[in-house]
UniProtKB/TrEMBL annotation:
Database matches in Pfam families: AbrB
Alphabetic keyword roster: Membrane, Transmembrane, Transmembrane helix
Xref: InterPro entries: AbrB_dup, AbrB_fam
GO annotations of cellular component type: membrane
Membrane-crossing residue ranges in chain numbering: 58-77, 84-106, 112-129, 136-157, 177-196, 258-291
Annotated protein name in UniProt: AbrB family transcriptional regulator
Any single biological process term in GO: regulation of gene expression
Keyword Coiled coil: no
Coiled-coil annotated spans: none
Length: 344
């Protein structure tokens, strides 16, 4: 277990970084600031966060995101289900194409390149790579770099440049805080997370509480909202957790792989942003929400970005939930089909 002094210094540095970027009015400031500050500290000395910090942050983040699903909002998201499904398939297929670029740049075998490039989430793709007998460390590094590229680029670009359309159909009124209700939801959500974790689902600490909050909000029985300071604390925990991975040895151990991951992530981001713009125009949905929904970032990070920018959180979360399910269902079979056809 890391020394308490190391954990305390890391937490203080992460919070300070988040507070600084908040003062500068940077979108998703607490998470990005915590990540950058922790990474800077990690370059010079050991860093660590308590093992419970990220799961605890995800529990309250899941409750906060699920609370945005009132009955009418859930109906609106359900009505967009064909678009969610089509977008998820397109995102996975786009990753399949970009895998060729990644393989050439990184010098990996095509199968490893496939698991590195498809935007299925760090945990999901690492698990699938392990099942296929490929390097989990390589896939984890590449997927982590992809998430970092998206986290550092999408929030400021969308906050400053993207047009903000009408998202009222996907916005629910905020609920007042009632601590007994909030703590009761957190305990129940935590209990729901354990079976999801045993089932091997990615992000169980977020999905369990989120599912509970959606059910309560959609039926009009949500006992409490989630206060902004708790969501900010969740951002700090997630940012610090990402930052602890960016040690000197991590970044210098495979420069070619890191560069390949950054370039392929940028190409995939531009490709999916263009596709999202076209789908939004055709479906009459808000462009920024579609761009975030199809962004090749992690589900918690993109949902947080939507919440920070007030960009139809339920719709963005719906996109990433759908893609997570599709990745679990399709990536394995796609890998086997690619092997049979000689594409991997």
């Amino acid at each position: 277990m890391p020394p308490l002094r190391t954990q305390f210094l890391t937490a203080c540095t992460a919070a300070l970084g988040g507070a600084l970027l908040t003062l500068l009015q940077v979108p998703l400031a607490w998470m990005i600031g915590a990540m950058v500050a922790t990474a800077a500290l990690a370059w010079h000395r050991p860093v660590a966060v308590p093992g419970w910090a990220r799961p605890a942050g995800l529990v309250f983040l899941g409750l906060g995101l699920g609370a945005t699903f009132s009955g009418p909002v859930l109906a609106a998201v359900t009505g967009a289900l064909p678009v969610l499904l089509a977008s998820g398939v397109i995102a996975i297929a786009s990753g399949f194409l970009v895998a060729r670029l990644f393989t050439r740049l990184a010098g990996t075998d095509p199968q490893t390149g496939f698991f590195c490039a498809v935007p299925g989430g760090v945990i999901v793709m690492a698990m699938l790579a392990q099942e296929a007998g490929k390097s989990v460390a390589t896939v984890t590094l590449a997927q982590t770099m992809r998430v970092l590229v998206v986290v550092l680029s999408f929030p400021p670009l969308l906050g400053w440049l993207a047009p903000h359309g009408d998202v009222s159909a996907f916005m629910a009124p905020r609920q007042p805080l009632w601590w007994p209700g909030l703590l009761g939801m957190a305990a129940a959500g935590l209990l729901l997370a354990f079976p999801l974790r045993k089932a091997g689902l990615a992000n169980p600490w977020m999905l369990g509480p989120c599912g509970l909050a959606i059910a309560l909000a959609a039926t009009g029985h949500l006992p409490s909202g989630v206060p902004v300071p708790l969501v900010d604390a969740a951002q700090v925990a997630m940012g610090a957790s990402l930052g602890t991975r960016l040690t000197r040895s991590f970044l210098l151990s495979s420069r070619r792989l890191a560069v390949a991951a950054v370039i392929s992530a940028a190409v995939l981001s531009l490709l999916l942003a263009a596709i999202a713009w076209a789908i939004a125009w055709a479906a009459g949905l808000p462009v920024p929400a579609l761009i975030l929904g199809m962004a090749p970032g992690g589900m918690p990070e993109m949902a947080l970005t939507a919440k920070a920018l007030e960009l139809a959180v339920p719709l963005v979360l719906g996109f990433h939930l759908t893609r997570t399910v599709l990745c679990n269902l399709l990536v394995g079979p796609l890998h086997r089909i690619g092997l049979r056809l000689g594409l991997l």
